[in-house]
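Fill in residues.
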């Protein structure tokens, strides 16, 4: 430790600040994943930030003077307000920032506190963002840890500086504080913040209730065939491949917001892959095993049951990335897309090029992946809570501090919400598969490089994909940015590429059912074909048609065009080779 007379370097100050932040989050009951623990990569990012700022002291001085001028303007503003004059605020929260929505934040003292915090956080984040001379990874990491710091010290997170919490405590004669303490103790015992009231939701009873039968089960997955609800169905089956880091039922929540039910009601024969929740014995199961023993058998099963040679497929997030790889391998293996067992492909918020892979890149530099590999080799799997905590920290204000304030400072009980129930129902991942995924895709970006990856004995080149394709992305997706989804997709060889972009995020953009009749439509999406040579996502967006309400009907229309004629709906699921094993949602989803 340096002596009292020895000033800390800026790098050490930033490192200490971050360690303090993470320690405080841990004390608040926030589980901190291993990937976020202070590492050499984090220290290197802060060192690079310090060096960059020191190289341009004039810019730093200008930013600092501007900040002080804003603070002086704020104090002058408050003096005028004290004299009874109407004044406009110096700074206001963004539309997405709900921390200061309560009317009590307009009271003079708390308004001063709020604006002072917003000015300070803006100054700190902009100073780091404007630092020049860092590589992209270091800058992203520095901005992420800085954002964690400023989010942590928001006055809304502290009882004595949160006017809503104080007024609630007075109105309830302290009962809200007692309830908050009880909630915190319960959360500390379970090792995570309670985000949702799970009691109304039970998988197979209130969630994942679309009728069907499990018609295939192996060590990797179950395959569900859903029961038709129409007299006639499209002969071509639709096989859905969800991500394996969560349960499949995000696509089959409740009947009113189930994409599965919607597609079944449109006359499609829908099959769902439900992944096994692996334990340590699966440590050597790899990415290719998920294709060979999961995706390919599911497609073969659907074709065999429906009496077809080709199936339409859907891939969501990581599941979609795997579908991209499998499509390329099958196209190469069979000589062309037309001869493969796949007729068309749909991708929901899916990356195929990880050069700009969103904020998850913060945790996927070589050093952090190596540290995670050591842990996974010891445990055999990556615990689902680890990944869930990482995703929560990417949106800390919404998925961490919002619940800290609500549960502990206001003493409220979490609300029932089906998407958050699903979000909290995480699964494990085999060490070999997750290591391959992180290294080959995030670190090396190998899938975007022609012939850099071999799967099913075939060299992979996604640019040669010929299948008709539909891509759904979301403007506010922080995990798979829509521009990063668009760019490689637009360059693929297929002559039929349709794109839809919603205004929501990674999950809400997908789980977006049509608005019920009689209710106001509050959303829209952009949709259109991607023409040959069109590579700029913003140019495409300007020319795309903005369409009100849900993207689901547009997709159903497109999918109908990729399907064979309609035939009489089957009276039962499965066949002699694929006999029904149990009712949907199956066994694996409940493990």
């Amino acid at each position: 430790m340096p002596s009292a007379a020895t000033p800390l370097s800026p790098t050490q100050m930033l490192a200490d600040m971050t360690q303090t932040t993470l320690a405080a989050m841990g004390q608040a009951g926030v589980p901190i994943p291993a990937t976020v623990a202070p590492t050499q990569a984090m220290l290197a990012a802060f060192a690079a930030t310090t060096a960059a700022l020191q190289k341009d002291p004039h810019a730093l001085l200008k930013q600092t003077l501007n900040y002080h001028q804003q603070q002086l303007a704020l104090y002058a503003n408050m003096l005028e307000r004290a004299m009874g004059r109407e004044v406009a605020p110096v700074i206001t929260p963004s539309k997405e920032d709900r921390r200061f929505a309560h009317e009590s934040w307009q009271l003079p003292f708390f308004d001063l506190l709020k604006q002072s915090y917003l000015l300070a956080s803006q100054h700190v984040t902009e100073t780091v963002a404007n630092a020049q001379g860092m590589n992209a990874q270091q800058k992203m990491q520095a901005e992420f840890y800085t954002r964690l710091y400023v989010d942590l010290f928001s006055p809304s997170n502290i009882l004595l500086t949160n006017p809503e919490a104080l007024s609630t405590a007075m109105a309830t004669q302290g009962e809200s504080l007692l309830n908050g303490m009880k909630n915190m103790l319960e959360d500390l015992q379970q090792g995570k913040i309670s985000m949702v009231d799970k009691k109304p939701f039970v998988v197979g009873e209130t969630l994942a209730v679309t009728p069907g039968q499990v018609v295939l089960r192996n060590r990797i997955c179950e395959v569900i065939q859903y029961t038709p609800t129409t007299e006639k169905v499209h002969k071509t089956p639709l096989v859905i491949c969800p991500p394996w880091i969560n349960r499949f039922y995000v696509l089959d929540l409740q009947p009113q917001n189930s994409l599965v039910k919607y597609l079944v009601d449109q006359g499609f024969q829908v099959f769902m892959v439900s992944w096994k929740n692996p334990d340590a014995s699966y440590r050597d199961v790899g990415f290719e095993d998920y294709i060979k023993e999961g995706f390919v058998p599911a497609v073969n099963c659907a074709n065999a049951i429906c009496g077809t040679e080709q199936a339409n497929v859907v891939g969501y997030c990581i599941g979609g990335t795997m579908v991209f790889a499998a499509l390329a391998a099958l196209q190469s293996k069979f000589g062309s897309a037309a001869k493969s067992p796949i007729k068309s492909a749909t991708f929901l918020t899916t990356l195929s090029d990880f050069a700009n892979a969103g904020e998850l890149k913060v945790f996927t530099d070589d050093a952090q992946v190596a540290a995670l590999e050591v842990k996974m080799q010891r445990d055999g799997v990556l615990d689902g809570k680890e990944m869930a905590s990482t995703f929560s920290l990417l949106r800390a204000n919404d998925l961490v501090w919002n619940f800290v304030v609500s549960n502990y400072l206001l003493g409220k009980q979490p609300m029932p919400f089906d998407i958050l129930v699903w979000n909290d129902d995480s699964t494990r991942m085999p060490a070999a598969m997750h290591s391959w995924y992180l290294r080959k895709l995030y670190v090396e970006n190998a899938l975007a490089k022609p012939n850099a990856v071999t799967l099913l004995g075939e060299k992979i080149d996604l640019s040669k994909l010929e299948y008709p394709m539909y891509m759904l992305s979301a403007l506010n997706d922080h995990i798979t940015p829509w521009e990063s989804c668009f760019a490689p997709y637009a360059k693929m060889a297929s002559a039929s590429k349709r794109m839809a972009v919603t205004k929501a995020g990674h999950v809400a953009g997908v789980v977006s059912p049509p608005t019920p009749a009689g209710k106001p439509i509050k959303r829209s999406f952009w949709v259109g074909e991607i023409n040959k040579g069109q590579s700029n996502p913003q140019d495409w967006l300007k020319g795309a048609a903005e369409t009100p309400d849900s993207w689901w009907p547009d997709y159903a229309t497109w999918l109908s065009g990729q399907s064979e004629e309609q035939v009489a709906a089957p009276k039962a699921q499965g066949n002699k080779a694929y006999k029904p094993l149990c009712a949907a949602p199956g066994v694996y989803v409940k493990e």
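The first helix runs from residue 10 to 27.
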